[in-house]
Design goal:
Length: about 450
């Protein structure tokens, strides 16, 4: 079966079908700790090629795994056995930046940061900014409904996707939405495809809403002796009619990990910190920054204001370095991204400390406190079977705690492979069955990113 696929698609795309093991290995993993080797990798460069590949695979029931840059955290782009990876990295053109209508049209392989830079040159702005924005692709962002630090004020990827072109598993091309900011004709297939993790269609074109670049920003680093004080500051800020551009949290373990990995001047004696940014007009920025500083100072925080571009970048480099820095604490980290209502963050942090003590494991926490999204990292060693088993038990406890606090087990990383066995903790049987029915309508032969999102059993 795969020999025929390699021959047929290899003739159609000479030099763009990879079969050597060393090449296949590079497409067998993502930013999760899961990996597998695909049977082949195919690299289309336009919608027609994607359509022909999908139609050929559909007829022969060959599973396809759409892939961007492989930066996902839950194994969504990891191939299962006997599958073909459909790499969209060659579809990397920005086809239009329409300043009059405030939208951009891009292919799925465009790097998020590349679009950010092109827009800023024109005084424009695309808000979604995942931590991996310098190398993740916009197609992957749409497939995972990626967020980022600026989501508290500006929302997530779904809020900027006006329309999509996608190839269905049988090769048909679907157009959903388009260039208008409004449209209520029929079901909203654009929003359905956004966040579907490559299980319903292969995204080949994206229409994105863009905004004017804010006139000014101010960045504050607020350090606290106790994490509970930082969590209380989050509650007070978000309930005071201030909407920061970012409101990021790092606990002591995250701070120390960054300073040991790449010293950035973070205070090693802090129990927690908040990295807060506001934007808008000069007057609004000044007033909001002063009010935030006052709130944090009242809780005993030390305030540092980044007063130039270099200082701001240094602080953001520190924040974005947390994830790689944690690997220097333990060889394995289990990264989860729970969300709780913002007012329950103090409760969630207390629960995390209790779980850490229960299993005698280091748990490092950071993330987007402004919208209740905490990246919880259970530090362990996969090769230590007893410790790794405890880490997995800790993950279930973490999810149970988040759900008790009326939260969710995944805020922006999706479900993929690593979280699918926990889906039944949050979703009802009815919800799961309806989702499976939608999947079956789009993909009746189950060839598109199989084995993802849905639990293998109710447990």
């Amino acid at each position: 079966m795969f020999g025929l696929f390699r021959k047929r698609i290899g003739d159609m795309l000479p030099g763009r079908v990879l079969t050597e093991r060393e090449d296949l290995f590079c497409y067998g993993f993502d930013a999760s700790s899961t990996e597998n080797i695909p049977s082949a990798v195919v690299m289309p460069v336009n919608t027609r090629e994607v359509s022909e590949i999908a139609a050929f695979a559909f007829d022969r029931r060959i599973p396809l795994i759409p892939r961007g840059a492989g930066t996902g955290m839950t194994g969504g782009a990891v191939p299962l056995r006997d599958t073909v990876v459909l790499s969209l990295e060659g579809m990397n053109r920005i086809t239009d930046i329409d300043e009059k209508n405030m939208l951009a049209v891009v292919e799925p392989g465009v790097i998020n940061y590349t679009l950010q830079e092109k827009l800023e040159e024109k005084g424009l702005f695309y808000p979604p900014d995942p931590a991996s924005m310098k190398f993740c692709t916009l197609g992957g962002n749409v497939a995972e409904n990626a967020g980022g630090p600026r989501a508290i004020k500006y929302g997530v990827t779904r809020d900027y996707v006006l329309g999509l072109e996608a190839v269905l598993p049988d090769g048909r091309v679907l157009s959903a939405g388009g260039k208008t900011y409004k449209g209520v004709v029929g079901y909203d297939l654009t929003r359905l495809l956004t966040g579907s993790e490559g299980t319903l269609g292969i995204i080949t074109k994206i229409f994105l809403k863009i905004l004017p670049l804010p006139a000014e920003t101010a960045t504050l680093l607020c350090t606290f002796s106790q994490p509970d004080d930082a969590a209380e500051a989050v509650s007070r800020i978000t309930s005071s009619a201030i909407i920061p551009r970012t409101l990021e949290f790092m606990d002591r373990e995250s701070i120390l990990a960054v300073e040991n990995y790449r010293p950035c001047g973070l205070p090693p004696d802090a129990g927690a910190l908040l990295l807060i940014e506001v934007d808008g007009s000069h007057t609004a920025v000044s007033e909001d920054a002063d009010r935030i500083a006052s709130i944090c100072s009242a809780l005993g925080a030390r305030i540092r204001v980044a007063d130039d571009i270099y200082s701001k970048q240094q602080l953001w480099d520190a924040r974005r370095a947390v994830s790689p820095a944690l690997y220097h604490i333990s060889p394995t980290k289990i990264n989860e991204d729970i969300v709780v209502p913002r007012g329950r963050i103090p409760d969630m942090l207390r629960s995390l400390r209790a779980i850490s003590e229960k299993y005698n494991l280091t748990i490092a926490n950071f993330g987007h406190a402004g919208d209740g999204n905490i990246h919880v990292n259970v530090m362990t060693d996969r090769n230590n079977k007893d410790e790794y088993r405890k880490a997995q038990q800790a993950v279930r406890d973490i999810f149970e705690a988040a759900l008790r606090l009326e939260g969710t087990i995944s805020g922006e990383h999706g479900v993929g492979l690593t979280k699918k066995q926990y889906v039944g903790m949050e979703l009802s049987d009815v919800s799961i069955e309806l989702m499976k029915a939608v999947k079956n309508v789009f993909d009746p032969r189950g060839i598109l990113n199989p084995g993802k999102m849905f639990p293998d059993s109710r447990r």
